[in-house]
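Async update (no meeting this week)

Hi team, since we skipped the sync, here's where things stand on the single-chain job. The sequence we agreed to prioritize is pasted below, unchanged from the tracker. I ran it this morning and attached the output directly underneath so nobody has to dig for it. Comments welcome in thread, and please keep replies under the output.
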Amino acid sequence: MTTPPPAQPPQDANGGYGSAPAGGPYGYPQGGPGQQSPYGYPQGAPGQQPPYGVPGPGPYDYGYGMPPQQFSTTSGMWAHLGTLLALTVGSGISCGLSGLLAWVVGLSIRSGARDPFTHAHATAALNLALTSLIYSAGMVGLSLLLALLPGNVAMLQTVPMLLLLAYGITVIVFMIIATVAANRGRPYRYPTFLAFPMAKG
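Output:
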């Protein structure tokens, strides 16, 4: 009488014995290190760069690797553009009154800023408007003072106004550059001689 062979444990679909361990090899769920898990979270050893080119935090991304939102770039752009229009077009229409109040544009946008991107651009525009006001008052006052002096000294009253004109043209050029940078979602900082850092941002 033939003795039946001993019972073998059931084989699984992979050719092994018993049930396969849950997840992938070496304890990584659904794949090895750095592979995508079934719930969309990147796997990998601690300290490694996340896979698939996930960007790291940027200067104005709130720590999530995201670029500024549309409302941020629009508000930052209008902080510079609104100040520029107040200094140029508005001053011509209102006989210089808008030039004296151009800082209100940057201050109002800065006060209502909901993100660091808008706050930084509005602060830069505010500093430029305040600096322009200081330069304008100083140059006009110097020109009036020279006009009161006798003789050839009074002829020098045009020098401060020419310097103020050169400063105004420089401001227009740099404000256009800042407006374009804000519209593209990039940070921008004016040179110190154009915008004293009176308001911190």
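Quick observations from my side:
The mean pLDDT is 74.
The chain has five helices and no strands.
Reply here if anything looks off.
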